[in-house]
Amino acid sequence: AQQLADQFAFHGPIAACSFSALSTSFDLVINATSASLNADVPPIPACVFGPDSLAYDIMYGAQATVFMQFAVQHGAQTCDGLGMLVEQAAAAFYLWRGVRPETSTVLADLRGAL
Question: What pTM was estimated for this model as a whole?
Fold first, then answer.
């Protein structure tokens, strides 16, 4: 984590710390771990979430992930990764075919199928 913080420090203040050292809420908390695959929550303290926080889980499914449920219990708004999957597919389709698909209908259809 410290190496990544050092590598991207030119973007602004970036710090690395252990989960247990976290003591403040954040605007955005992204779960990009595999914890949701096992219905687990990463070892983050509840204080990282606040009323102005967005908890984003890369995972998606018919139900909110355990991470998203934990975030809601601690005041955060949530979003899952289905939109990112659809937008990445649309970007790839555009590169291959030169046509940009309408993603809102695809996303709505997928949400309805979950």
Answer: 0.84
